[in-house]
Amino acid sequence: MPKVRTAQETPLSQDCDNCPIRHRAVCARCEADELRFLETIKYYRRFDAGQTVVWSGDRMDFVASVVSGIATLSQTMEDGRRQMVGLLLPSDFVGRPGRPAAAYDVTATSDLVMCCFRRGPFEDMMRTTPSISQRLLEMTLDELDAAREWMLLLGRKTAREKIASLVAIIARRDASLKLHGRSQSLSFDLPLTREAMADYLGLTLETVSRQISALKKDGVIQLTGQRHVTIPDFNRLVEETGDDTDGGFLV
Amino acid sequence: MPKVRTAQETPLSQDCDNCPIRHRAVCARCEADELRFLETIKYYRRFDAGQTVVWSGDRMDFVASVVSGIATLSQTMEDGRRQMVGLLLPSDFVGRPGRPAAAYDVTATSDLVMCCFRRGPFEDMMRTTPSISQRLLEMTLDELDAAREWMLLLGRKTAREKIASLVAIIARRDASLKLHGRSQSLSFDLPLTREAMADYLGLTLETVSRQISALKKDGVIQLTGQRHVTIPDFNRLVEETGDDTDGGFLV
DNA sequence: CGCAGAATTGATACATCTCAAGCTGGGTGG
DNA sequence: CCACCCAGCTTGAGATGTATCAATTCTGCG
Question: Do the Cβ atoms of B77 and A103 come within 8 Å?
Answer without folding.
Answer: no
